[in-house]
Design a protein that fits this description.
two-stranded antiparallel sheet; 96 residues
Length: 96
Amino acid sequence: VKVKNKYMKIEKEIKRIKWNYIKPIKIPESLKLYLWEYQDYAPLEILILRTLTYGSFEDIKKIYNLYPEETYKIALKYPQIKRGVKYWIERWKKKK
């Protein structure tokens, strides 16, 4: 997607990350706080991404135990995931 600024002659390309996991998943009750626009079901990628971004350590561990491969791939895919979160996910992956 190309965006033009109307005040200056700047053209910038915005790259969007394509979702890999779009299957609707029932939202666990403890994680509904992070998915404010969804009622009972949400795409798996959004559920994991929001948990990794806003969740506590226990929430991140819970989502990793439910979906280990998907969580690992999503944590490495998005640049906004904090370094500490990536560290723990990689450590848990090495243990298994």
